[in-house]
Amino acid sequence: MTQLIDAPTRAVARARRDRWLLLIPPAATLAVCLIGIDSASLWRDEAATLDAEARPISGLLRMLIHVDAVHGLYYLLLWPVVHAFGSGEFAVRFPSGLAMAAAAYGTGQLGSQLHSRRAGISAGLVFAALPQVSRYGQEMRSYALVVAVAVLATCLLLRALANPRRRNWIAYACAVSLLGLLNLFALLLLLAHARFARRQARVWLVTAGLACIPAVPIVTLAVNQQDQLSWVVKPDLNAGGALAVWLAGSVLSVVLASVLIGLFLGRKPGHALTRLAIPWLVLPPIVLILGSELKPVYVQRYLAFCLPALALLIGAGLATITVGPRVIGLLLLTVLGTPTQSAIRQVGGHGDDIRDAASILGQRARAGDGVLFNCPPCHYQDMPREFAFAYPQAFADLIDVAVATAPSASDTLRGTDLDHPTINVNRVWVVDVDGSTEPSALRATGFRLVSIAHAGNITIEDYERE
After folding, report:
1. Are 15 and 106 in contact (CB under 8 A)?
2. pTM
3. End-to-end CA distance of the chain, in Å?
4. Which of 250, 262, 393, 447 has a CB 3.0–4.6 Å from the CB of 442, allowing a cystine?
5. How confident is the model over 408-434, as pLDDT tens digits?
6. CA distances from 178 to 68, 72, 74, 392 (A)
7. How far is CA 161 from CA 113, 200, 203, in A?
């Protein structure tokens, strides 16, 4: 009799303990994302986000009709954060860290449901250790939120398949709709969902189809704004291997991950986790790479939502071995990713060292000096104009001598340029990116180069009138 009474008690205690254990991966993920979250300078994409956030909501909505509609929902969600807490690196990046922590929790839940608690916790900790999780958990762009919503949609799919009530399918449809509104390419996740839900294919197809309808206006606007992707080139034959290294963190991380995944697949090739995670990891990159033969759209960060699939497979592999080797494997994966983790936390770790460039201007420029933004190899030569929104104090007292219409007034990100600027100042600072060239406006009006300073890939050139 005592055993019959104790059995339910032990089951409740075990379930409670499991819930607490599954909180370890999100806590670890948030902790890792917070380490050095403000170390790297804001870069050009984050500057574009702050460019959008500097407008009133009405102005932001007008801008989205002309440019960046694919990021519109993220801009709207972040708008109150920026206006409440400011534009410092920590404030604007912290929501991405929270999103990655939520994704880690969902990844642990998926591993537990599809395999075991051991696999779920292992997958969540692997997710925390992947360098790209930190990279986009420390960036003011939508990718971390997309990862979290992709995991949420997958969790809701599992619930709907296990308990096919209407409300469960509605919840799944809402998550898929949110995913499409945040990132159109993330809807490639549905390829994996279709494979996994084939036993209830009809209801899944109807639900997923209806869930994609809210993204149709975004698709329409994106087609009209496709010039924004004109900088993307076709992927080469090394794209697959480079993506594997990018996802895992290093070449040796790919080797270790392959061994662990091989252990799992060798023992349970037809397992439910395999049927979900393999298509999730493999199909979106294949479609995006092949689709780029028609229109180049392949960029590695667009596939950040595949990170949980990799973590699930590695976590399942870790779950097949005993505690000691499992801990060693997780530690080794962490150590192998350390160089990448360190690199993304350098001041120029996100790509552009706008902070140091702004510091140079803040120290040397005087109120009333002119400024020119120049990026010869960029698709938009005036792209660096967005830098002024990242660290506005350094640019506030400078005169943009080439701008005809300001970004907010033109409902664009960079405004419009004068065809032939008239420079009525005696000193001009040129913010030059990815190559130092003297702008024609200076060349024709008698300015001479006085000094050059470098901040990563950004060159600050001081020109004074002869």
Report:
1. no
2. 0.95
3. 100
4. 447
5. 999 999 999 998 888 899 999 999 998
6. 17, 12, 10, 32
7. 12, 7, 10
